[in-house]
Design goal:
The protein has about 600 residues and is of the alpha/beta class. The protein has three domains: about 160 residues, ATPase, nucleotide binding domain (Nucleotidyltransferase, domain 5, 2-Layer Sandwich), CATH 3.30.420.40; about 150 residues, 2-Layer Sandwich (Nucleotidyltransferase, domain 5); about 230 residues, DHBP synthase, CATH 3.90.870. The chain contains 20 helices and 24 strands.
């Protein structure tokens, strides 16, 4: 008899839902994609409904509902924390505790109310959910497990072993000592938003120098040889206040916290560089210790820190482990998947058959945009959109020609990606050999900070030609370095104008080469995604290079586009030249609402 399990993450950040049937991942998606609220933490009604629709069932036909946290353990941690920080944590206590007492302690009832049912809700420990999301979808029969994030119930880092259908957690680092919270503290101090701005600080780091590393290690953190850490709470405020850092933190570095959206100074760049280097060191020490105690060749990772592509790239290059697999939805969204898989395998003890290809289906687990759909045609007709329909082969050649002509092309087709990375189905593509493309796409399309780097999508067969890498990179989760023979000498910029620094041509693929020659690479093969593969093959015939910019189809502050309406709206409100929706091709200046310049286009 089939077993259907619904996994849920909610109420903190990146709310999501996943549904599995007999261990097969059927669907998984974040709530933000529907509500258009980035990082939405509300109960994932839309995501759940989508998951149910994929099986054409109602919530009453679900066998088990599994939540990604153990709320009683979390409540115990909060009580212990507030008791330890009396009276300094009174403000945080008064803000948090009423919600804990009136809502979170009755979480099972709340979830039932939201679902409109009355059934037992199963609660999975947070880091076990992360561990399960990393191990069970991997193609390893046995692997070491490392999960690193801010904090779950008590754990901030766990080490474990997965074998067949079972997971055993062996070691942990507990709150308030946390690599994730340390990184978030610097994210906050450098003026970026916690739980989303970490990517920005990571992108900023190569512009700085690691001048504060010694100070961080002398005053803020003690790093043991096994990678475990102790944070000096004298400089942090998250245990007792409403901010991440305090005045002692400012005094230590003699720097004022940067206010969001203000100028980024060299000191801020140096802080970003320094904490990234410290994070790299911690993760490498953790990995060496995991290898020492497990003696395994395979490592799987999850948790928010596993999405630090710089650290993951250094881990891959270190060769501490022979094989590494990272959950592409490594944050709390992916914990909804882990919770469901944990119950199916660990508790129900169902047999696990390792999928040697990819049980994550290359993360294409979200809502579908069909090549042709009468409903989508009706929507587009309402917007008076003009387009031409092509067959697959012709469309791939057309898109390749447009990209070779220097045009920016957005893609919205197939199932959307689960996790933070667009992997070809909700992507914006552009030329990587155009030295002006990075600035143009950042400012005119993405409408974000000019320093943000872009990732390349490259034919798997060509990846080693351009980058120092010897493995596939399906999920864009690691940075690799442009090979030395493709790098160009750049004169030293004497002023501190970041735009002048960014515009320097550093390699033969300048639009995807960061200031330190790194790139967050995605490799593509025919089996993985034939259409984008064909675009790259045709583009290579025209340009000589099987590589393009691939960035997520959205603008700053908004989630990745989900459906036809989102895609057309983003297209019309940016300097994207062409749009692909399914097998339809749209040209910007042919659209009725286009007036020769980008205007705020509303879809009622």
């Amino acid at each position: 008899m089939s077993k259907i399990i619904l996994g849920i993450s909610a109420f903190y950040h990146d709310s999501a839902a996943t549904i599995i049937k007999d261990g097969e991942i059927i669907a998984a998606v974040q709530e933000e994609r529907f509500t258009r609220k980035k990082g939405d933490n509300s109960f994932p009604h839309h995501a759940i409904n989508y998951c149910l629709d994929c099986l054409n069932i109602t919530i009453n036909e679900v066998d088990y509902v599994v939540y990604y946290e153990n709320y009683l353990k979390k409540f115990a941690r909060l009580l212990i924390n507030y008791h330890a920080t009396v009276p300094f944590g009174i403000t945080s206590y008064l803000k948090s505790m009423p919600k804990q007492l009136t809502q979170d302690l009755f979480l099972e009832a709340k979830i039932n109310k939201e679902l409109g049912v009355k059934m037992p809700i199963i609660f999975c420990d947070h880091h076990m959910a992360h561990a399960a999301s990393a191990f069970y979808p991997s193609n390893f029969q046995q692997a070491a497990i490392l999960t690193i994030d801010g904090v779950g119930e008590f754990s901030s880092t766990t080490i474990g072993i997965g074998k067949d259908n079972q997971i055993k957690l062996l070691k942990e680092i507990t709150y308030p000592n946390s690599v994730g919270l340390l990184y978030s503290a610097f994210t906050y101090f450098t003026g970026f938003k916690i739980n989303s701005g970490e990517y920005k600080m990571m992108g900023l780091a190569p512009y700085g120098k690691p001048k504060y590393v010694k100070l961080i290690k002398d005053k803020l953190i003690h790093i043991n040889e096994d990678g475990s850490i102790i944070l000096n709470q004298k400089y942090f405020n998250y245990t007792k206040g409403l901010t991440m850092t305090n005045r002692n933190f400012e005094k230590l570095f003699n720097i004022k916290r940067r206010k969001p959206e203000t100028k980024i100074t060299q000191d801020i760049m140096d802080l970003a560089c320094s904490i990234q280097q410290v994070t790299d060191e911690i993760i490498l020490k953790m990995a060496k210790y995991v290898k020492k105690i497990t003696k395994l060749d395979n490592l799987v990772l999850a948790g928010g820190v596993s999405l630090n592509v710089v650290s993951m790239g250094k881990l891959q290059k270190s060769k501490i482990f022979k094989n590494i697999w990272i959950q592409p939805a490594g944050s709390d969204a992916g914990a909804s998947l882990g919770a469901a898989l944990w119950y199916y395998y660990s508790i129900l003890k169902e047999d696990r058959t390792v999928n040697l290809n990819d049980s994550m289906q290359y993360a294409y687990l979200g809502p579908m945009i069909n090549n042709t759909s009468k409903l989508d045609d009706k929507i587009l007709k309402k917007f008076q959109a003009k387009y031409t329909v092509y067959d697959e082969d012709t469309l791939a050649k057309k898109v390749a020609q447009l990209l070779n002509d220097g045009k920016i092309v957005a893609i919205a087709r197939g199932r959307s990606e689960f996790g933070p990375r667009a992997l070809g189905n909700r992507s914006i593509l552009g030329s990587a050999i155009d030295e002006n493309m990075q600035v143009k796409m950042n400012l005119k399309v993405k409408k974000r900070e000019s320093f943000r780097p872009f990732a390349p999508i490259v034919l798997e067969s060509d990846a080693k030609k351009y980058f120092d890498m010897d493995t596939k990179s399906l999920y864009m989760l690691m940075t690799y370095y442009v090979k030395k023979e493709h790098r160009l000498k750049t004169p030293q910029i004497k002023n501190d104008n970041m735009l002048d620094i960014i515009k320097q041509k550093r390699s033969i693929i300048p639009a995807v080469t960061h200031i330190d020659y790194s790139s967050r690479v995605q490799t593509i093969n025919q089996k993985q995604y034939k259409f984008i593969y064909d675009v790259l093959k045709n583009y290579k015939k025209l340009s000589g290079i099987g590589l393009l910019i691939n960035t997520s189809f959205n603008v700053r502050g908004e989630p990745i586009v989900n459906n036809v309406i989102d895609a057309y709206k983003c297209f019309m409100n940016t300097d994207i030249d062409y749009l692909v929706i399914g097998n339809r091709l749209f040209k910007k200046d042919e659209q009725k609402n286009y007036k020769g310049k980008v205007v705020k286009f509303k879809l009622d």
